[in-house]
């Protein structure tokens, strides 16, 4: 059976650029060893954590919690794509992670962040969470640097392939690692 890798878009801001980056990322992660699935947290649309019990008990009552749990359990690995917001990662991603506990344990997790300095602080913030939930982080976690010259007047990449050409090797290394791990 083909292994499954979820690319989770960890931003829900209306003017976000993450869907364009996710499409670019999905193309570069294309492999004959695993299939990728896009999961957009803006579409998953989890309300602010509304379960009465702590996630560690896995006593989900809400339909959206059960569906989210089943989705994460169905994946062999996840690639979390998210921007750096105020020296950390977006609240929508924290909320999505907080819904679950056991589902994250031993889950292979890659971090792909972006920002004017690549999103290093966002990765550092997330790493504390990954350690606590006993996720299995990949050794390759690309940092994608963006700048204002990359975007047109509608806040879309002018040429994402050219813009990330110098950084594409990082994603190739991640694909090789996922091929090995899966």
Descriptive notes:
This protein is α/β, with parallel strands linked by helices and 182 residues long. Strands 1, 2, 3, 4, 5 and 6 form a 6-stranded parallel sheet that branches. The model has no long low-confidence stretch (mean pLDDT 97).
Quick description:
The protein contains seven helices and six strands, in the order βαβααβαβαββαα. The protein has 182 residues and is an alpha/beta fold.
The helix-strand sequence is EHEHHEHEHEEHH
Total of helices: 7
Percent range of helical residues: 25-40%
How far apart are the termini?
11 Å
Radius of gyration: 16 Å
Describe the largest sheet. Answer: 6 strands, parallel
Mean pLDDT: 97
Shape: globular
Question: What distinguishing features does this structure have?
Answer:
182 residues; alpha/beta; 6-stranded parallel sheet
Please describe the topology of this protein.
Layout (H helix, E strand, L loop, with lengths): L2 E7 L8 H11 L5 E7 H4 L18 H11 L3 E7 L7 H8 L9 E8 L4 H13 L3 E2 L5 E3 L14 H4 L4 H14 L1
Parallel strand pairs: 1-2, 1-3, 3-4, 4-5, 4-6
């Amino acid at each position: 059976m083909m292994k499954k890798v979820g690319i989770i878009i960890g931003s829900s801001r209306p003017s976000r650029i993450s869907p364009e980056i996710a499409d670019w990322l999905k193309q570069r992660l294309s492999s004959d060893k695993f299939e990728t699935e896009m999961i957009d947290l803006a579409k998953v649309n989890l309300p602010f954590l509304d379960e009465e019990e702590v996630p560690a008990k896995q006593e989900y009552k809400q339909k959206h919690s059960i569906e989210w749990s089943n989705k994460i359990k169905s994946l062999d690995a996840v690639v979390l794509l998210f921007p750096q917001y105020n020296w950390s990662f977006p609240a929508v991603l924290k909320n999505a992670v907080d819904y679950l506990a056991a589902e994250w344990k031993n889950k292979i997790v890659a971090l792909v962040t972006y920002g004017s300095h690549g999103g290093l602080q966002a990765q550092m913030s997330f790493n504390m969470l990954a350690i606590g939930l006993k996720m299995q982080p990949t050794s390759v976690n690309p940092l994608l640097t963006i700048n204002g010259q990359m975007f047109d007047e509608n806040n879309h990449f002018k040429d994402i392939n050219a813009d990330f050409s110098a950084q594409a090797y990082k994603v190739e290394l991640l694909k090789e690692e996922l091929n090995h791990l899966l």
